[in-house]
Amino acid sequence: MKESINFGFDEAVNSFSGVFFWVDDADAGRSDIQYSENVLSVTGFSANEIKALKDGWLSVIIKDDKPAYKKRMSEFEKNPDKDSLHHNYRITGKDGTIISVMERINVSRSVEGKISKKFGLVLDVSNYLGEIEKLTKKNDELEQLNSSKDNFISILSHDLRAPFTSILGFSEILLNENSLPEKDKAEYLKYIHDSSQNQLQLINYLLDWARLQTGRLKIEAQRLHAQSITYNCVSYLTGLTVRKNVNISVTIPEAFYIEADERLINQVLNNLLSNAVKFSKENETVEVSANIYNNKFIEFIVKDSGMGISDTNKEKLFNIGKLFTTEGTKGEKGSGLGLALAKQIIEKHGGEIWFYSTEGKGSEFHFTIPAAINTLLLVIDDKEELVSLENGIREAYPNFITMTAENAFEALGIISAKLPSIIILSHGLPLMNGLQFVNMVRKENKNILIPFIVFLDSASESILKSYQEIGVRILKQKPAITDQLKEKIESVLY
User: Which is more confident, 247 or 47?
Assistant: First the structure.
């Protein structure tokens, strides 16, 4: 009967993931401590290996936790009124890993209060504590964010309300003072216009920021030509640059494409460029450039040589809870929310944003955005040559997307749906030759200069010259993947 009871007990304790240990005679010494089989899976040591250690179980407890462990155990054993102990500490596994454990001990005591039997359980709680740490950190972040939002709402309520007092005051004067000089009227109207424009921008920023925070604003990423979207932003700011006589210089390779939400990335660029113009002096130049960053991202840089940012204000940038605004070199106003929103947008795209600035010498803002995968369009009328070239391209450039067309009209449909990084074609296409095709593509995509490579194995000097005049790279050979072709592809894409 006793054997069947022991078998049932052993089976029960070994079914748990933790380590059970028990002593029937507390005075018998370490050798009589029994451990469940799970001691091996938890610690890496077998029961016999633990018993053979100099101080038994105490030997696996890490050095920093031993004094407190010994103190707790001593106080527990000496207190006749306590029959259980629950505590946490760390042990070192056989492979050297640190394991956080929770130990629960229950004892039986004699009439005199002396421990006669001991039964305990040790659980590996490393993952559990890791999750608690993550949740605690997340909770701290949420509390900080909530505090920032409270501060933000306080600042925002002031910024939204304050200009309307002046707007209403000036508009009331314009309505009631019929004899007001034209000069004063123009001045009041300009103030009303500028203030209203600033308030509208602030409200738009606020709406986008709130949508990003709540997840209601989805990032709708698409393949965008980096140079074109930058020029569009520069064009949008023409009025501002002309009034201030500030030039914007753009140095972005034609081959750069990004994967981004067009409206949101325009918002980031407009904000950074308008800030750079705002803090520049007359006749200065704002520089915007782009480079490859870690092969997976494109890094944009917006640089000015204007007012710069003070050390006091540097820590406030991008912080929704510490909004501040500084007047530009001609008294231009701002909301202070633009950079905080820009940071949100860039991070939602998986990128980063940072800056360098010296007060009185200017600022340099950097941000990264995912690079779009390069897409090659092959337009070859000979099917065998097309298949051969396609296979060669896929082997040489496995990370590229390769699309094919056998005539110019099929290719035009592909281009309108998916803008390729580069087009490789043969001159002798049916219905429309290569030269006509290139001109057609250029006409329909005026703002985007797609690079072309043409196979021209035999043609007149006039045709050769026509291609050269419009910047098409020429290969005098039949369509095939060669070192020359690779060199030309890489010259326009990297």
Answer: 247
